[in-house]
Write a structure and sequence with these properties.
heterodimer; A: alpha+beta; two-stranded antiparallel sheet; 15 helices; 8 strands; 11% strand; elongated; B: MetI-like fold; 2 domains
């Protein structure tokens, strides 16, 4: 694309040229804009690549990477069986020859002035001496991926346990928020409640309420009734509606035609029946968005589990569990990156499969205010 | 609204019932149902928002700890006096304000720029880019912190490799140096622009094309069109994101807490107000003083929000009258 861009830029300067054409210029502009988006996207997503590469490195490869190698490479080795039947492994180096060619040989005996090598293709030839410091030689490397990091990290932090905890907290809260928010949004969208507009303003206002201001009494309350150290403070409040979700659902319910409600009412349906058979079947897109938001929120939540599950490592979700792991295994970056990857797989998969519903939800809540 | 529902329903109802009475009755019933459906929020708001805000204010005048059996003691304004004389708290507030001054503008301008780029009619594969730029927003905070810690590592991090490659010999050790740690947090925060970018983009796509066509007739260039049409038309969304971003920074906690392992070091340069609050309330179990800090930040947030709403009249344009 860039190659095509070059000539057209000049043609802008000499736009009397017969080669100057509107289409060509448009093509150039499009290429440049798309290139810009591409370069920015690459820069934006580069940390993922870094993570992916470190996650499959061994500890040696990480130490070795300080000199500039970013790929998980390992020196190629030659396994030699000696006379006593013992297998020894020697690293292979590139040895420049007098005629400019390069041969690859395994380093057997390291020396400062000269080192002894063996030719892997022809071990019977025995040891050969090469004069010069072996440190100046370039090792032969191959791509060597250590997927076992994932298994090690999985066992070390008891990932299945963390995964189950997170999933349980997320799904229980999800049920709560869906039940309560659908009812409350239905009330705001359809019923003649005195003071409804004021209450709706208050509800929307709580979206921008800094959460610290309610934190300590809420914590004290949960501590008094003995709920700290359990999942209840992380789940039960979701059964009492959340402003953001109510707002999203209410905006969506408002767009649904009232005629269907009325028809159902004439047929003798009560408010619950109308909600279940008329409103909910039409509102799936918004309901799915709310479900996704909650799931991602719960997966991400750090502060709640941090304060309510202090001293209960067996109950913590991934967010807090993984961080404890970071404190303990700081010098093992490959395990930390492997864990980061494992912790984000599920939210990312959900996003990839439910992208449309997700982004529509963001737009409803963000744009309508 | 529902009065019309009932009057329409009425002809089908039992004719022996006088119409107005039946209608009143139904309206009454509807109201009761409304309260029933509203009750989860009414309860939740009362128990988890209204009462705690009030109780929190009362706590600011007390000394108590959940860890000890000592009864709650009223100490008047002592906590407030202590707060204004607490150099650590004031330092932490300073860090928070300093970070807000760089993070809020970037948190608006960057998503705005990307949204404008993705909204360009000169971009190929429009639908492809949106999820790509949104995706990092989905990465759990804890994972993104680890990923960036590795990326920003002073020796092996890719950012410093790039910086060295272009010839700058001593790049900062981003997450360890006092002078650069807030910029490093800013970089980590760049992955969080997804929501703002998406709402701005969606609003830009809703701007009527006639406006741009009219500007074309007048010979306006792209920059002029952006300043005079796009910006005013999407100003409500920018305002909304501005408010959310200011409130968000007031609550900034996870990134500095995890990166500095709760210390806020080097030299307190990453010790945010919320970390002090966490330490006071949950490490030292000083609930009264913790509540005072919480109320303090609440008052600041309230003043800022009111200030933003007050100035919004000057630059936020609501097409459909008031909002």
């Amino acid at each position: 694309m860039a190659a095509i861009t070059q000539p057209t830029v000049t043609s802008q300067v000499v736009n009397t040229s017969p080669f100057y054409s509107y289409q060509l210029r448009k093509f150039a502009v499009k290429s440049m804009i798309t290139m810009l988006a591409l370069i920015l996207a690459i820069a934006y997503l580069l940390p993922f690549v870094n993570m992916g590469l470190i996650a499959v490195k061994s500890a040696d490869q990480i130490t070795g990477s300080t000199d500039g190698n970013i790929l998980p490479l390992s020196p190629e080795t030659y396994a030699y069986t000696d006379a006593e039947g013992k297998i020894k492994s020697y690293e292979i180096y590139k040895i420049p020859q007098a005629d400019g060619s390069v041969i690859e040989m395994a380093l057997v005996k390291k020396g400062r002035q000269d080192s002894q090598f063996i030719d892997p293709a022809n071990p019977e030839a025995g040891l050969m001496t090469w004069t010069g410091s072996w440190r100046t030689l370039e090792p032969v490397v191959t791509l060597d991926l250590h997927f076992e990091n994932f298994g090690e990290a999985w066992d070390l932090i008891n990932f299945p346990r963390l995964f189950f905890n997170t999933l349980f907290i997320a799904i229980a809260g999800l049920i709560g928020t869906l039940l309560s928010c659908i009812c409350v949004a239905y009330a705001f969208a359809r019923f003649p409640i005195p003071g409804k507009n004021v209450m709706f303003l208050i509800l929307v206002g709580t979206i921008i309420l800094p959460s610290q201001v309610t934190l300590i009494p809420t914590y004290a309350f949960f501590a008094t009734i003995g709920w700290t150290g359990t999942w209840l403070p992380l789940i039960v409040p979701h059964f009492f509606a959340n402003a953001y979700n109510v707002f999203l659902l209410r905006q969506f319910f408002m767009t649904l035609p009232r005629e269907l409600d009325e028809a159902a009412m004439i047929d003798g349906a009560g408010p619950f029946r109308i909600l279940l058979s008329v409103i909910i079947p039409q509102a799936w897109p918004a309901i799915i968005s709310v479900g996704l938001f909650h799931f991602i929120f719960a997966w991400n939540d750090y502060f709640g589990p941090l304060i309510y599950l202090i001293g209960k490592p067996e109950l913590v979700p991934i967010s807090v569990g993984v961080q404890v792991f970071n404190f303990q295994y700081g010098p093992r970056p490959e395990l930390i990156q492997a864990t980061s990857l494992m912790a984000m797989v599920l939210p990312l998969l959900i996003f990839i499969f439910a992208q449309k519903a997700f982004m529509r939800g963001v737009v409803i809540t963000g744009v309508d205010k | 609204m529902s009065a019309t529902d009932q009057s329409r329903a009425a002809p089908f109802s039992n004719p022996s019932n006088p119409k107005p009475l039946r209608s009143n009755n139904l309206a009454q019933q509807q109201r009761v149902w409304g309260w029933i459906f509203l009750s989860p929020w009414l309860f939740g708001f009362t128990v988890f928002t209204a009462i705690p805000i009030f109780v929190s204010l009362i706590f600011t005048f007390t000394e108590f700890s959940l860890a000890s059996k000592a009864p709650m003691r009223f100490i008047g304004l002592d906590n407030w006096v202590k707060l204004f004389n607490d150099p650590v708290a004031i330092g932490a507030l300073g860090v928070t304000v300093k970070f807000a001054l760089i993070a809020v503008p970037v948190g608006i301008i960057l998503p705005l720029g990307i949204a404008a780029l993705l909204n360009s009619k000169n971009l190929w594969g429009k639908t492809l880019w949106r999820p790509l730029y949104y995706m990092p927003y989905m990465v759990p905070a804890i994972s993104s912190i680890f990923i960036w810690q590795s990326f920003l590592n002073g020796d092996t991090g890719w950012l410093n490799r790039v910086i060295r490659a272009v010839g700058i010999q001593n790049p900062p050790n981003w997450l360890q140096d006092e002078g650069s740690i807030l910029f490093a947090f800013l970089l980590i925060g760049v992955w969080g622009i997804g929501n703002a970018m998406l709402t701005m983009l969606a609003t830009m796509q809703g701007v009527p094309t006639e406006l741009y066509e009219a500007a074309d007739v007048d010979g306006a260039g792209p920059l002029r069109k952006f300043i005079n049409i796009t910006f005013p038309m999407i100003s409500p969304v920018i305002f909304y994101n501005l408010v959310l971003s200011v409130i968000g920074i007031m609550q900034y906690f996870v990134v500095p807490y995890v990166v500095t392992r709760g210390t806020g070091n080097p030299n307190g340069s990453a010790y945010f107000f919320n970390m002090h609050l966490y330490k006071t309330a949950f490490t030292f179990a000083d609930m009264g003083y913790g509540a005072t800090q919480a109320w303090f930040i609440f008052i600041i947030a309230l003043v800022l929000t009111i200030g933003m709403f007050a100035t919004s009249r000057r630059w936020v344009y609501y097409a459909s009258g008031d909002s």
